[in-house]
Write a structure and sequence with these properties.
This protein is mainly alpha-helical. The protein has a single domain, classed as Rossmann fold. 52% of the residues lie in helices and 8% in strands.
């Protein structure tokens, strides 16, 4: 929705995916730390296997509390996050040169967890109810609701609670209603961001 209004977007997950390709900046380190068992026969990283190696088997959270990731998750983050953040910074610098008054958005689940919030002018948190996250994951990944619940809970255990993210946010998009309701919130935030960007020298 932000892109449709004119924002430039990069996705941290896609950056990480590119960096983990054979020959990518973090490929060798990830394989060294997590073993060749995370690889497909063609040598590419199998992301579900890597997720299981880092998060543990679906349905298990290892007794970790939300926002307190296991040492394996921290290990993965320490390999991947610096390279992702470096690529994000390069991209933002490039956008700033090409579009001095543009709006550049980095879509990432772990901005706060990575300690990267200070790199951004504004923080937008998108949230919805837990049951909706599970239903939407099941629909998107074409899995049953119980499998979706286990995966969502496993991933949430490695992230800050929404309550903490909302406290840190400049804008909160409540995505628990209709698309039209979400779109109105996006337009409001975008208008304010545009106004702020226009004032920059």
């Amino acid at each position: 929705m932000f892109v449709a209004l004119g924002a430039h977007l990069i996705q941290a997950d896609e950056i990480a995916h590119q960096l983990m390709q054979p020959g990518g900046a973090v490929y060798e380190e990830v394989v060294r730390h997590f073993g060749v068992g995370i690889l497909d026969p063609d040598g590419r990283v199998n992301r579900p296997r890597l997720a299981e190696a880092a998060f543990g088997p679906a349905g298990e959270t290892g007794g970790e509390t939300s926002g307190n990731p296991s040492s394996r998750i921290q290990e993965l983050n320490q390999i991947v996050h610096p390279a992702v953040v470096k690529r994000q910074e390069e991209w933002m610098d490039d956008i700033a040169r090409q579009h001095p008054h543009g709006i550049a958005i980095v879509e990432a689940a772990l901005i706060l967890e990575a300690g990267a919030a200070h790199q951004f002018n504004r923080l937008i948190v998108v949230t919805c109810r837990l049951d909706q996250r599970i239903e939407r994951w099941a629909q998107r990944r074409k899995v049953d609701v119980e499998s979706a619940r286990q995966e969502v809970m496993r991933r949430m255990a490695a992230q800050w609670p929404d309550e903490e993210k909302i406290k840190a946010a400049d804008y909160v998009i409540d995505n628990s209603g209709s698309l039209d309701e979400a779109s109105k919130q996006v337009r409001t935030a975008f208008t304010e961001l545009e106004r702020e960007a226009a004032k920059k020298p």
